[in-house]
Specification:
This protein has helices at 15-29, 48-53, 73-87, 105-113, 134-148, 164-170, 184-194, 216-231, 265-277, 279-285, 306-318, 322-343, 349-370, and strands spanning 2-8, 35-42, 60-66, 91-96, 120-127, 160-163, 198-206, 294-295, 298-299. By secondary structure, the chain is of the alpha/beta class. The protein has two domains: 2-231, Spore Coat Polysaccharide Biosynthesis Protein SpsA, Chain A (Alpha-Beta Complex); 265-387, no CATH class. Helix 2 links the parallel strand 2 and strand 3.
Length: 390
Amino acid sequence: MNMVGILARNEASTITGVAEAADKGLHLTFPSCRNVVMLADSGSVDGTVQCFATTRLQAEKVMVCSNGAGSGKGTNVLAISGRALQLGARQVVILGGNLRTPDPEWVRLLASAVAGGKPAIALATHARDRYDASIANHLVRPLIAATFGAHLAQPIGGEVAMNYAFLQEMSSWEAPDSARLYGIDAWLTANALRQGLKVTEVPLGGTVHRLAPVKTLPRCQQVVDALFYVMTWLDKPHPVSRTAAAYREVVSQTAARRSPPQLPPALCDRLTGYVTRHREDLCALFPSIRSLQHAPWGVRIPVEAWPDLLADAVEGLAAGEFLRSRDHLAVLLACRTATFWYEIESLDAQRIDSLLAHQARDTATTVRRRKITFGELFQSSWSTGLWKGL
């Protein structure tokens, strides 16, 4: 049996197209097998579930719904993986319910990347707008390289596939509360690397998600929480042993806004207020920040300074400062993102790709020089921590 799981919350405008593409992809890839298309919905109120229920498919349809309270993307991913394991699925491909132009061929590409009996996960890569994917580009990518020894172009945020053996391994991993929210992708990738499992990146072309307003700051905090949680299971950062291709496109050569986006003035005020209020503590935990200049969004963090700040965060985590490192780093990421938007204004896509690759490699080198070792496990309990009232 093979399965495609679809993640949804208020995706009524796109869910039918995604379900039909999933169904067609399964039929073309596994024409003689039992196939299942599963909807995992967390509290939709726009008719998403009803749209899926009335969509005609060749495959069997399964639905798992939660009421949305305390749930998120991770809740849906865990529901799909749990049902796939229960049904004995050889492969499960997970797609976002917000895809505008889903391609049935993706099912074949992703499923084939995890074929076989050894645990394997496949991560989709998309060429995105130069101003998108800040959390993946500036946080997870360099930290994955620095602590798990893997150069992955897009370690979080896209479509994914897992085989049955991987699902079995995954079922034994402890999940913090943040892994039930937007921390799920970082938790999956980091655990797979921690266990030495096969991780493959599958290029799927340009980004095709329906854009929607996102709460970038809370999302970043959830991702950092989940990633830090898995990092504390290491004894020390792993040396780089997995290398990416010499050039992997993560920035679209064609799709780009004409000018950098602007952080809303209210957000700039909040970031500046946070940096001012916690200045002493930021300097104590992130000593590399002392030489950086003030900016309208708090602090200007150029590319050459970011690896040292990430290494400071890893060092703080190793010293037992989980919450302080997490919350301060999430704010600093917003500052790095705003700085990056202006750094790349005159660069073409290939030079931006090169900058991001070097940023990850420099972070790995900087962390390795620190000779960091991790001590005790941190039992994460999701909260807004220092961000309360920000």
